[in-house]
Amino acid sequence: MFNFHYRLERNAIGFVLAIIVVASIGGFIEIAPLFTIDETVEKAPDMRVYTPLEVAGRNIYIREGCYACHSQMIRTLRDEVERYGPYSLAVESKYDHPMLWGSKRTGPDLARVGGKYSDDWMTAHLNNPRDVVPESNMPAYRWLLRNQLETGDLGEHLAALRAVGVPYTDDMIANAPKDAVGQANPDTDLATGVLERYGEKTDVSLFDGNQGSVTEMDALVAYLQVLGHLTDAAHTTPQNEVE
User: Fold this and answer.
1) What is the arithmetic mean of pLDDT over 122-149?
2) Cytochrome c domain location, by residue (predicted)?
């Protein structure tokens, strides 16, 4: 066996062909599942896209490195399901670019954190985690309350997402800056537009507790509050016995 390997290394053409064969086998194993993706990804007729404010919040989540300490994927293990809720389905990440499944949990998984806590709790926790969880080692993100959210380029963000398959309409893209403001200012005409474009179940709220201005805190809380609520597929699809 070893002699064969030594002879192969001395034969340049044979060695290149061997590399091509091995790489082809590995490539086929990786690519083959894509041909059955329509059968393996669940159907979710109620799936909705992220609103402009939630997209901005997701960008902030990535910018601040939240994914480094929090995963967004509940595995099919009994202890995880009992702690976090139904295990994650592929369709729930359908519109995530990039994926934020993560692999490290310094903090808890956030796949179903939406609605688990109030907006006030979320804001207080992000502003200074120890105010609500004394033993927390999470850093404070106080600047989120001070930083005004940049909304002018949100239409371009939505257009870029549409280019990779997210079904944003021309109307959604054109009204992205207004919708970001409207979602954080309930009982206004702008808020009505958000509900018309993204559905009545869209969370319209004073996320950071302040009327009028839209901060980065508004955006991040809006994003966190929608996690696990873009579709009800995980709650309506029968899940097999967990391990």
Assistant:
1) 96
2) 52-228
